[in-house]
Amino acid sequence: MRVLALDIGERRIGVAVCDPRGSVASPVCVLPAKDVLGNAPSWRRTLDDWEPELLLFGLPLSLSGAQGPQAARVRTQAQRIAASAGLPAEFADERLSSSEAKRSLREKGLTEKEMRGKVDMIAASLFLQAWLDGKGTSSGSSS
Fold it and tell me: Which ranges of 1-143 would DSSP assign to H, the alpha helix?
């Protein structure tokens, strides 16, 4: 099953996708949040290119695992995005995915400015991979 993961930020949304077998996550792109929320052509093209069966949204939980105001905002926006795309939505814990993405990019020698456009899609690929690994490819889910 092809899953498209979205890391929703205030200004940007990072996008990652898994292979059709659902085993490997890869970063795709970063789109302006207004484009995704407004169902702009760039977002529609991403959906057309990857043909996902599910949208996975990163949920920003606190370190204790609680959902705060930011998680509520993400849930609301995610449900809007999924409804306009006509796709089911699931949520994954995205705690520390952005800091892990920054660490990885820093190790590759990128500056803060060079990282800006990449962190969100790398973070999306990290929580997508964790979600895929947690689900296992052999477990069939019936929804």
Answer: 33-37, 41-50, 69-85, 97-107, 112-115, 119-135
